[in-house]
Amino acid sequence: MRVESLGDRVLFIYRNFAASLLAADVGVKGNCIYCIDPSKEEPMPWSVFDLSNGSVTDAPLPCPPSPSAHLMFVPSIC
After folding, report:
1. Which residues pair with 33 in a beta bridge?
2. For 56-69, what is the mean pLDDT?
3. Are 62 and 28 contacting, i.e. CB atoms less than 8 angstroms apart?
4. Distance between CA 51 and CA 78 in Å, rounded?
5. pLDDT at 62
6. Where are the beta strands (DSSP E) in 3-42?
7. Can you tell me the distance from the alpha carbon of 6 to that of 13, in angstroms, rounded to the nearest whole number?
8. Contact 44, 53 (CB under 8 A)
9. Which residues of 18-28 are buried (b: 16+ CB within 10 A; e: fewer)?
10. Beta carbons within 8 Å of 34's beta carbon, 6+ residues apart
11. Is 14 within 8 Å of 35 (Cβ atoms)?
12. What is the Cα–Cα distance from 65 to 32, expressed in whole angstroms?
């Protein structure tokens, strides 16, 4: 099945983890897939694929700095 839009949701992917959340709940742009790229240095280890226009960019996320780019940011939904 081909997915062309996530609507107001986002998908976070890292190794064996994936989560789909409402973009407004975590403060990021919707209709995007966020993946950690372990080859990149902080503060921007995230690659962002925007399904609305097919672009791929680097972006920091609204979370405190971590000691390693290999740690997964898990948004709070509470």
Report:
1. 11, 49
2. 61
3. yes
4. 27
5. 57
6. 9-14, 17-22, 32-36
7. 14
8. no
9. eeebebeebeb
10. 10, 11, 12, 13, 28, 46, 47, 48, 59, 61
11. yes
12. 22
* Contact of 37 with 59, CB cutoff 8 Å: no
What's the whole-model pTM score? 0.69
Instruction: Look at residues 53, 40, 7, 16 and name the one whose alpha carbon lies nearest to residue 61.
Output: 40
pLDDT, average across residues 66-74 = 46
For residue range 2-24, what is the model confidence (pLDDT) as tens digits? 889 999 999 998 878 899 999 99
Block residue for tokens 């919707």: 30
